[in-house]
Each structure stands twice: as C-alpha cells, then as structure tokens.
Amino acid sequence: MDETIVLCLLSLLLSLVPPTSGQIPCPDPEDISPCTCSYDEENGQVSADCSLANVSEIYSAFNDVVWEFNTWGNVAITELSGGIFGNVSFQHVFIMYSENLVTIDPSFLLAMKDTLVTVSFTSGRLEDFPWDVVPQLVVIEQISLDGNAVTTVPELQSSTLQSLWLRDNRITTLQEKWILPIFSSLALGGNPFSEFSSGFFADFGQFGSFYCQECNFGPTLNSGKLEFNTRQLWELHLEGNHITTIEAGAISGYTAETKLNLDENSITEVKEEVFRPILEVLSSGDGIVSLLDNPIQCVCSMAWLVLNQTLLEHVVGNCENGPSFQELDPFHFEESCMKMNPPMPGGHSTWVSSHLGVIPFPRRGRPAVDRE
Ligand SMILES: *[C@@H]1O[C@H](CO)[C@@H](O)[C@H](O)[C@H]1NC(C)=O
Ligand SMILES: *[C@@H]1O[C@H](CO)[C@@H](O)[C@H](O)[C@H]1NC(C)=O
Ligand SMILES: *[C@@H]1O[C@H](CO)[C@@H](O)[C@H](O)[C@H]1NC(C)=O
Question: Nearest bound ligand to CA 307?
C-alpha cells in the first residue's frame, strides 16, 4: 500500500514541473536519504531514485518530507479537492497555466493546512477561492491568484499571511476588513480597481509594497485615497492609471525610503502643494518620486522644484517635450518666473511667468517621449 502512494506521487511529479533552477523542486537531500532526487532542467523532470532504500525509508521520504508540487500548463485539471495527494503534504504548491481550473475545494487546502507556505494558482479560470479556510492554514505566507477571474475578496484573517498576489483579475473594490497583522505586500495590477474601504491599510503595521499598475485610479487621485500606516512603505506602484490630477494629501504614510512610481500617467503639473510635502519626507532618506512619461509642462509652476536641488534629487521625471527635470536650467526659472504673494494656503507659493507668453525653460536636444 505504501508503495502505491509513492508511485502515484512520482507519476504526478514527473513531467509536470516548470523550468526552475538549482535544488528546487527537490527537497533537502538529507531529508529523503537514502533516496535521491534529481532535477533535469532541460526536460523539466524530477526523478527520485530509491534503489537503496527499504520500504519504510521510501514511505518516510514521501510522507514525512516536504516536496514542492508543480504543474505547468496542465489543461486537464478543472477542480482540485482534498485527497488528491493522499497523505502527502506539500509546503509549496504551484499550479500554473491550468486554463480550465475553475474550482478549488476547501478540502484541497485543508489537507495541507499544517505545511502549506506558498500556494499559487495562476492563469486559470478561478472566479472564487476558499478564503474562509485561510485562517486554518497555520503557516501560510503567500497566496497568488494572478491571472484568474476573481471579482472580490471577502473578510480575510490570517496571522501568518504576508503577501497576496491578485494581478490581472476583475477586482474593482476591496470593501471588507482584512485582519492580517504581518501583511506586507499586495499586488492588484491589471484589475479595474479603484476603491478601498476607508482605513483599509490602517492596521497593516508591516506593510511594505503596493502594486497597482494599470489599475483604475484616474483621472483624479482624491485626497485621502491611499492612507498607509506603516514604518516601512518601500514601494508604491501606480503606473499607467490615467491619473491627470493628484489632490494634496491623496497619499499618506510614505516614509523617507518610499519609492512612489507614477510613471505613464497623464499628469501635467508638478504641483507644490502635492509634491513638496512628499519630497520633504523622502529627501531625508533615499526615497524617490518617479514621474516618467507623463505630459508634464515644465513651466513656472514647477520653479519651486527646479530651484531646490535637495528636493530635485528625489524626483525622476521628464517634461512632455523631452528634457529630464535635472536637465532644466535653474537660472532660466530664476530669471523668468516670479513667486506670487501672498502664498497659497499651507504656505505653498504660486510661481508665474514674469514674461507674458514666454516659456522659460530650455528645450534641449532630446526626442519627445513617445506616448500613445
Ligand atoms: C529500513 O532501514 C532503516 C535504516 O537502515 C532501518 O532502521 C529500518 O529498520 C529498516 N526497516 C525495515 C522495515 O527494514
Ligand atoms: C493517512 O493517514 C491516516 C491518519 O494518519 C491513516 O489512517 C491512513 O491510513 C493514511 N492513509 C494512507 C493511504 O496511508
Ligand atoms: C529646499 O527645500 C527644503 C525642504 O522644504 C528646505 O529645507 C530648503 O531650505 C530648501 N532649499 C532651498 C535652496 O530653497
């Protein structure tokens, strides 16, 4: 009976493995000795050799040891439920490009509840996921459902979950409370996403990275839209969101090390009231605001930035007509722009051109940025 299990497992592992390198997907050699595991990268095959092992050693190699389970492009899988792996428990399960996968039964996850650390069902047809069993997965760290048809994530609770990858699904809002004390990374890129419930991030004290490239935050990023509450926000990706306007206070909770990426939007102005508060925080560390490939008009309204080298060092960007912000000549801004008094509310100034009709920045020889 033990041998039957072993053979079943082997036939699952053989030929179903994506190209990876090194030891993975073999377990630690000591754990399965005297069986040996080898991985042929060229054919994507894992083989286990148990010629020197007795029956109980074989049983132990496959039942007491954590193997990684992979399938790649297996279109025969439509449903996964408990019992499929017998009593074998995996730590990492990657089921990728199973284009006909529509259902994951809670029993599939519960059968591995004590070992499952990473689970990834990418590029399938899942509209839902058994979220309510997540609290029972006692060591789960990462769930990936990239490239499915998920529309919503309900209330979610886990004391171990760190990252959730939900790219390229159909999520428009996240309204439910998630209780995830060590949650650090959320990827929502490629969803028509624009709404969090208020205070969504408030309890994620270890949150570090938010990815929402090609989400739906434009045209106006309203005040209070993204409020983080963490000491370590590393990355905030909002590329390609058709954002034209950012209101003051739209983003809060950045730190001196935050990289805020706003590339490939439709921002025309680097407004002082929006960007000075951010840059004042970022300039005490290595933080960066990136504004590449926006139709930015490098006119007097950005004199406040061009005339402050300290802040300028923390911005990457280019004018619509080509030059990078760093290539702009501060002398021209000083000559051609003047600060209007009194300053705007919040102490921010308004800079206007002192020569009517004159555009005071140099256009140096860079091709215009190619935008659609
Ligand atoms: C299998 O081999 C191990 C290690 O040599 C030994 O301890 C165990 O008794 C053996 N089991 C059987 C059923 O022969
Ligand atoms: C699976 O584990 C259960 C409980 O430990 C045991 O009763 C059962 O016989 C095992 N099944 C197999 C196929 O080894
Ligand atoms: C640049 O801005 C910083 C932060 O607001 C300020 O402390 C500093 O005095 C400014 N430098 C210049 C040259 O205006």
Answer: 3
